[in-house]
Amino acid sequence: MARYVPRTYKNHRAARLLARALAFLLIAAVALAIAMFFSLRQYIVYTPEGLRLEIPWLEEE
Prior knowledge:
- The protein is an alpha+beta fold.
- The protein contains one helix and two strands; from the N terminus they run H-E-E.
C-alpha cells in the first residue's frame, strides 16, 4: 500500500528549481540568438537564389 505524503513545499522544491533552470536556459538561448542575428546582419547577402551569409573569416581562399 502506498504511503500518503502530504503536498508540501518540500515536495515541489526540485520541480520548481528545474523549471527555473529551464526558463533561464531558454531566455539565455533566445538572447544569444538575437545577439547573433544583430551582429551577423551586416554579412547577409541578398541574391536571386535567396539569402546567403558571407562571413569573411570563414571564407576559403
